[in-house]
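Hi, here's the filled form for the chain we discussed.

Project: internal
Contact: R.S.
Residues: 421
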Amino acid sequence: MSELWRGGAHSPLLELRAANANERELVEQVSRASDWLVKEALPLWANSGYDRAAGRFHEQLDLCCRPITSLPMRLMVQARQIAVYAAAALSERFVLGGELALHSAQNMIAHYERVDGRPGWIFALGPGKDAVDPHRDLYAHAFVLFALSWVLRLEPRQVFFDAIERTLDYLDDALIDRTGGGYWDSQPRRDSKRRQNPHMHLFEAYVSLYEATGDSQFLERGRDLRNLAVTRFIAPGTGALREYYNDDWSVFPSAGAGNVEPGHLFEWSWLLAGFAAASGEDQSEVIRRLMTLAIQKGLDASTGRIVDEIDETGLVTNACSRSWPHAEALKALTLGVEPKELATPLLTVILRRLLDQYCPPTLQGGWRDHLNDQDCPISRTMPASTLYHLYFGITTVENAISPIGKPDGTTRFVNEMGPNG
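And the returned structure, exactly as it came back:
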């Protein structure tokens, strides 16, 4: 199975007609996932998962769907939830999400940006009054831009454009590495490592901003990060996406011994395809390498199980299994695989695992975020940050087979804009 990805343009390549049992089962699993998302997950996190008095989303729920109020409320969580509910409103999956997203975005700007008198966005608000984590974190700033790209599509308010401009200025002034390329993870730094992950999400944000505004500066910024990925993050020939680096972008702990997360292989594949669609620049070769390694070494095709980590050779180094890589695999697999008959069973088995193992009916729209190597739950709470992955993963597959619609022949939803819906 040497060729596992096909296609160049960022358009779903599934051509289902529900003509056989495999295709009918995928349609049934997608319908099941859609019902879970629209009837359970989105209402749960808009109600129990939302602090209406503060106008902010809760960080976590317990396994009885009650908010855990003793935790800091991270900026990243606010931004992710804002993006989800804006997208859900635009697609008419959850129309009330529009008001929720717009109100929360205004509050995010008011309470997280420059609240300590310095430029940029604080990392978190503490549970106590006036408690803040003053770190400026690249990952969180990336999601601020991503969230603002989505609320702009709801209402192009000047306050959102102004916040985007200030955020770009802060990134350029304080976090960009003008010598080695890319950005520093945070100011002040929390440790000596550099990471590919926040760069990936900044790349996602730039492409999304380009799609929302048509402003070519965002495509140029995205291109710089794409080039950083293919020259620094992704090993030549193998498709191994290394996670950690030293200051000079040498691999940590050393070349050939880097950590690789299959979920990020899928995630970069999807985002690179989105960049290809926006720019007209072919990314098929690098996507092929990423997808091949992810499917062959990170995924059990018989169960849909995706492991947390492998090494650069493909050896499993952490056999635990998070929920989010399954959602990222759903997005990437809609791009197409070779042989093409493989796409439907892979999507089906991953969706089934996601719903059965991570999002069972007993949790009423919540999830088990992390399982051990025997698929026993590790996490004892439901992190709100997971909804971003689940929403865009499920809706991407649903949109890819939307000509079929639900098993009764109806279609309810329109596609969201951009590569994440």
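Let me know if anything looks off before we file it.
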